Amino acid sequence: MSFSGKIKDELERIDGMPRHCQLAEMAAIYDFCGKQSKEEDGKMVISSENELAVRKYFTLLRKTFNMYKDYSADNPAYIKRGSGYVLEVAESGEAEKIRSAIRVTTDTMRSCCRRAYIRGAFLAAGSVSNPEKSYHLEIVCQDERQALFLAELLESFEIEAKIILRKRYHVLYVKDGTKIVEMLNVMGAHIALMDFENMRILKEMRNSVNRKVNCETANIGKTVNAAQRQIEDIKQLMKTDAYRALPPALMEIADLRVMYPEATLKELGELSTPAIGKSGVNHRLRKLSKMAEELKGGEL
């Protein structure tokens, strides 16, 4: 099952909400999956390729309007039609009663109902990419009005979402990992939230380790290259009288550099008599390199 599928499975199982929250969740599913029949019968139709959204609407109808009592989760009132699932409320009076009850506005919604609406919207038309690969949550909206309404609800929880036009749909999306975690919390997908956080931590740890390894590798490369240049300069000096005229301290560090080509500056300092620090070793090696440069220029 995909990560989105796991989230929706968890959201579909959320139960025990007060009636006003159930109505808000129904409103979202109807907004994203529902329609009124074009025929004069005025029946309500919920249609989606996502069975979980249709099944949740069926469950909420049973609980909030005492409908479909002869049906169960094992024998639901909705049917499979083609690649999707369809639930119909054929009686026009009942359909209008439901539509009237689930009308919502941002002004009249409580905080808990906003959470329920966002949950229903995601259940009906949302998706989240695998956090091991990227951070991306989106909800496909029918039009700009719907997208702006949903964005306003998210803003009330300090979650900033952006909207883009994709073909004929307006897509609301969140790409910040922290904000996706907050949105999962708002919807009540707490198990998915923990899974997301665990994968995010592992991903960030791997990235941190890779950065450190790359940095360490680069530093090792610089050290090796610097040591190789120093050895070349010293060997150049060894061919001349200038080497034999070197002060004892410089001659010692020159010999140590050639004898221990892989040693760090700290290790060369510890091998010196008496021992010296990294800055002292670096100063002497720089002096040797300068002498080699002067030799090349014919000044020695």
Summarize the structure in words:
This protein is an alpha+beta fold. The chain folds into 2 domains: 3-188, Endonuclease I-creI; 204-296, no CATH class. Helix content is 60%, strand content 12%. The chain is built from 12 helices and 8 strands. The protein has helices spanning 3-12, 19-33, 51-65, 92-101, 111-125, 144-155, 177-187, 190-238, 241-244, 248-259, 265-271, 278-296; strands spanning 34-36, 44-48, 79-81, 84-89, 126-128, 137-141, 162-166, 169-174. The strands form 2 sheets. The chain has a 4-stranded antiparallel sheet. Strands 5-6-8-7 form a 4-stranded antiparallel sheet. Helix 1 (3-12) crosses helix 5, helix 7 (177-187) packs antiparallel against helix 8 and helix 8 (190-238) crosses helix 10. The radius of gyration is 35 Å and the shape is rod-shaped. The termini are far apart. The model has no long low-confidence stretch (mean pLDDT 86).
Task: Give a nutshell description of this structure.
This protein has twelve helices and eight strands. It has 300 residues and is an alpha+beta fold. It folds into two domains: 3-188, Endonuclease I-creI, CATH 3.10.28.10; 204-296, no CATH class.
